[in-house]
Amino acid sequence: MNTEPLLQVTNLRAYLASQRGVVKAVDDVSFTLGHGEAMGLVGESGSGKSVMSRAIMGLLPRRADRTGSVRFRGRELIGLSRKEMSEIWGPQISMVFQDPSRSLNPVVTVERQLTEGMRKHLGLGRSQARTRAAELLAEVGVSDPERRLRNYPHEMSGGMCQRVMIAVALACEPGLLIADEPTTALDVTIQRQILDLLRRVQRERNMSMILISHNLPLVAGRTDRVSVMYAGRLAETGSTRQVFDAPRHRYTHALLAATPTIAHRRHSLFQLIPGTLPNPVQPPSGCRFAARCGHASGPCHEPGPAMTMIAEGHHVACANPVAVPPAATATATAGTPGGDAGGR
Predict the structure, then answer these.
(1) Residue 81: how many CA atoms within 13 Å on its side-chain side?
(2) pLDDT values of the chain reduced to their tens digit, one per residue, 344 residues
(3) CA–CA separation, 288 vs 46, rounded Å?
(4) 2, exposed or middle or buried, with CB in 10 Å at 0-12, 13-18, 19+?
(5) CA distance 200 to 152
């Protein structure tokens, strides 16, 4: 059994040049991802989640500065040329983007978009690739796959296009799938179908996955671990059960409290997080959530809390973490670490 992490990110920084200055979109982020593990990456819009996924993939703009270390299967990815990365995109790491209407080529058939990668990376012939493409469409729940191969993206619904995007991402049997907000602009029913599909495929193929979303309930029951990101940094990481049952960082706690639930009283106000994200060009020193936190104290501002392990597999960067409720402690002791959390 391979004990080395599939993906190891260490002190990753991704700085983007802009008219206002250098945007510190990802600032000193470290985490590992095991073989066959599903990790959720959550946080408000603008936290740096999508930029981090592109930094891992090496898909940042030309004017971006990427430093730190990204090791995949023991190989350092930072510093590789675009030609070298093109051999990794598809057969080793694939990505499902937010908007399939902009990711799929509108003037190319589904068949060609599915088979190009297989013919290049797997060496399949035209007939073999077409057969495999039809099988992939069936696997991701596309009805009448033979007919759909002849379609263009505009001839299909948004949910169907997203299924095609997933099939494209799976075509070359990657070891890691990054799904960046894969249910954007889809209705609630289709959202659930797409996320359940991703989880099922990930388990059946024993593939690792990073599921990026600002919607915590969508991540809750479909990942093994969760990392909470705020203003370019990780605030909390742990098993899905640990983080959702007993959030310790003040930001995670506030984020979950602001999430609508079925038990919310009709016409009552939602519990909002005051303030806004800090300026990404000039972020504050110390904890970046301190200005919005009602429990901030001196150590939060200077030098700021470091990521600290507070339980097995559970790390938090908070000087005044939330106390663990007794019920959550009992649940964590009885539960299986890293297992699925129930949907919220």
Answers:
(1) 2
(2) 567 899 999 999 999 999 999 999 999 999 999 999 999 999 999 999 999 999 999 999 988 999 999 999 999 999 999 999 999 999 999 999 888 778 899 999 999 999 999 999 999 999 999 999 999 999 999 999 999 999 999 999 988 999 999 999 999 999 999 999 988 777 888 888 889 999 999 999 999 999 999 888 889 889 999 999 999 999 999 999 999 999 999 999 999 988 877 777 777 777 889 999 999 999 998 999 999 999 999 999 888 899 999 999 999 999 999 998 766 555 544 444 444 444 43
(3) 13
(4) exposed
(5) 27
Per-domain residue ranges of the chain: 224-262+276-336
Sequence-ordered list of residues with C-beta below 8 angstroms from that of 323, at least 6 positions apart, any chain: none
- Tell me the one-letter amino acid at 320: N
Cβ atoms of 102 and 83 closer than 8 Å: no
Closest CA to 246 of 317, 336, 331: 331
Q: How is residue 199 written in tokens? A: 């989880």
DSSP assignment of 153-207: GGGS-HHHHHHHHHHHHHTT--SEEEEESTTTT--HHHHHHHHHHHHHHHHHTT-
What is the DSSP secondary-structure string of 12-58? Answer: EEEEEEETTEEEEEEEEEEEEE-TT-EEEEE--TTSSHHHHHHHHHT
CA pair distance 102, 223, nearest whole angstrom: 27
Q: How many residues does the chain have?
A: 344
Distance CA 69, CA 227 (A): 18
Which secondary structure element, helix H or strand E, spans residue 9, and what is its range? strand 7-18
DSSP-derived pairing of the beta strands 75-76 and 65-72? antiparallel
Number of helical (H) and strand (E) elements in the chain, helices listed first: 13, 12
With beta carbons less than 8 A apart as the criterion, state whether 55 and 9 touch. no
Q: Are 175 and 207 in contact (CB under 8 A)?
A: yes
165: which 2 tokens? 């995007």
Whether the Cβ atoms of residue 235 and residue 317 lie closer than 8 Å to each other:
yes
pTM of this structure:
0.89
